Amino acid sequence: MSLNQINRLISTSRQSYISSVNSIRSLSTAKDIPSFPMKRKSPLRPPPEYAKLRKEAPVTKAKIWDGSSVWLVSRHKDVVKVLTDSSFSKVRTHEGFPETGPGGKAAATATKPTFVDMDPPEHTQHRSMVENDFSMKNVESLRPKLEKIANNLIDEMKKKKQPVDLHISYSLPVPTFTIYDMLGIPYEDHDFLERCNAIRTNGSATSAESSAASQDLMNYLARLVEKKKKNKGGNDMITRLLKQVQQGKLTDEELVAMSFLLLVAGNATTANMITLGILTLLQHPNQLNELKKNPSLIKNAVEEILRYLTGSQFATRRVAIQKVQIGNQLIEKNQGVWALNASANDDEEVFKNPTQFDIHRQPNPHLAFGEGIHRCVAEHLARAEIEVAINTLLHRLPNLQLAVPFDKIEYVTDSSRDFGVNALPIKW
Known about the structure:
This protein is an alpha+beta fold.
């Protein structure tokens, strides 16, 4: 055998060896890719894997429900980067956008998108149509209405036989009745809407039942829009948005879709923060007593409830529309990214003792409402609703307590849904 033949043989063998090693590494890496979402070990806290990700793999791949991969981003500074960088898109029909399940994938193409699923300039144009309604100034003017709603609900609760489910009787109606009033929904229609919403937010409902309830709401809103076209002179959000239709800036279909978004988006999350906020305070009785004695602590307490619980953990999804560097990782075009805001809110580099609940925590740069241009448009309203709901409840029912042991509370265990409780029985 000639020297050239020997060298070719060695080269071929080396290439074959390298190929085999790479195959083994790829196989090993594939096996190591975690599945997402991860299960919570403690019902009120994020999955423990998040802490490991922040430390060892702050930008890492994971597999989601359909077998596709997505980048998980777990550190606070990197989550902020994803949520504020125009290299990422919020358009759900874009190739590679990660969905939470088959229902989400179908919904992405079933109806006209609203501003939460748009990029600029469409996003800017549509969001600006409702921003003033949710401004801090306007929300502050709503506080007397919020207090009236809260007090009326407590009056009704006190007529009932104890124990009472706080979530259904109080937490959910506070944000729901508020948005009904803002949208100009007639009182006589409340029962119908509540039945539809109950099906949509009920964890035991099938996807078909939930979809049908959503369609019922859409049909209702389409009829309501037509009524408001004929009955001019209202001062509600839908009536004001009709002016955008008349000016050609919005179609009827887009108005109905936006009204649906305003009707349902955030209600369940805000209700969960009221319910779970009360539960968390009951688990920390010293801080609960502080808040009872000094109600002015409520603003700081609510910020900590938002950070500690992070009610909305699955909305901060994006897809790269061009190559972009996050941390030490290059994200390719059309790759999906899940910015883990619950993990960011536990980041040890930003928050001292992040696993501890502390109503005196300052500063508190949490990302419960997201960040950037898609930061929750109704964050001021959500804050006010939680503040008023908790303070009013503690004032009216100072002896409030759980009617069951802590370990008997039934939590939402589906890790693909924002967490909560199936019920929170209370007595006073």
